[in-house]
């Protein structure tokens, strides 16, 4: 008998493994969705054309990919969105992943249209903001008044993902109520960040320099995102466990509605 756990779509990064164009997802993301959200992660291939992939977008729509799912989880990635995606003519900072941009923006639009639970992390958080009409700083550290939010890429992973700065949770907000506190400390591994907040998003947390670090959708049931990495050592972090648990609960409720009509 198959599990009744919610099925969560996890779209990929498109990158070379050696010389081979590949579709990949970081293992820590799958672990957090499976164990902390008590769900079944299903990796979703990018549908946009790649070096060795003719576009799948005609035979597999975003709605097709979401049809039998109960939630959508967007991971982080070292790649950056192409600035034209948010109306900028800046050259931006690579590496880029245009297949991911096209795929994830389409999936976000389709998921929000059906009020499907969505949880997004880092690059995925930035994609959510763009999907909701917002824009990004292409290099936060170059913006006067903002801090450097990047990690030291040469440092060991344990220190790269260690908590480094506080974030203030919006008073009376969804996240502050969920976590029962007004301040948490988070890790920080990003060079881009939210410039203009998407029209339908509410800021749920901000860094000391004012940068938005968490959002939720104003009108939808569970569409949220964080700029930090709650998937990292989620089992040792009560905040991470609470966030993934809330996402899993929302996906369970969606699955019940989807399967019982
Ligand atoms: N490239 C964007 C987003 C940063 C991000 O997602 N970093 C995590 C990469 C590694 C991982 O998946 O844990 C930016 O720099 O803002």
Structure characterization notes:
This protein has 261 residues and is of the alpha/beta class. The chain is globular. The strands form three sheets. It has a nine-stranded mixed sheet with strand order 4-1-5-6-13-12-11-8-9, sandwiched between helices. The longest helix has 23 residues, at 238-260. It contains seven helices and 13 strands. α3 links the parallel β5 and β6. The site of ligand LF53FM6H has 14 residues, from loops. The ligand N[C@@H](CCC(=O)NCCCC(=O)O)C(=O)O binds next to loops.
Number of helices: 7
Principal-axes geometry comes out as globular
Low-confidence stretches: none
CATH homologous superfamily label? Class I glutamine amidotransferase (GATase) domain
Hey, roughly how much beta strand do the residues contain?
15-25%
Rg: 17 Å
* Broad structural category: alpha/beta
Assembly type of the shown chains? single chain
- Per CATH, the architecture is 3-Layer(aba) Sandwich
CATH fold naming: Rossmann fold
Largest sheet: 9 strands, mixed
How many strand units? 13
Order of helix and strand elements from N to C terminus: EEEHEHEHEHEHEHEEEEEH
Please tell me the overall pLDDT.
98
**Terminal residue distance:** 21 Å
CATH class: Alpha Beta
